[in-house]
Write a structure and sequence with these properties.
Strand content: under 5%
Order of helices and strands: HHHHH
Shape: elongated
Number of strands: 0
Number of domains: 1
Radius of gyration: 19 Å
Distance between the termini: 46 Å
Mean pLDDT: 87
């Protein structure tokens, strides 16, 4: 991942919790990437790529942070399953 040096003002306590500095930078980057994925600005695969994680590890990270990989409602999922059953029955 290409990096850029910028000055950001963040609460000092974040650096107090996340020592050494590299860990703080990693945590802040993770939070930013997860926020971008959560708001739909970037895809999950792009998020995984930015963090240098395999897709399944990125999904686990999302899960640990309460983010869902799918935003379908239960009704939408049920409709998809019904459509799949129809396709399979017709084959």
């Amino acid at each position: 991942m290409t990096t850029a040096r910028q000055t950001l003002d963040v609460p000092k306590i974040l650096f107090d919790f996340w020592q050494p500095r590299a860990r703080a930078e990693r945590k802040i980057t993770e939070a930013a990437v997860l926020a971008l994925v959560g708001e739909g600005t970037i895809t999950m695969s792009r998020g995984a790529e930015l963090l240098g994680l395999p897709p399944h590890d990125f999904l686990a990270l999302m899960h640990r942070h309460g983010l869902s990989a799918w935003d379908d409602t239960p009704e939408e999922i049920g409709e998809g399953v019904n459509q799949l059953h129809k396709v399979l029955s017709a084959a």
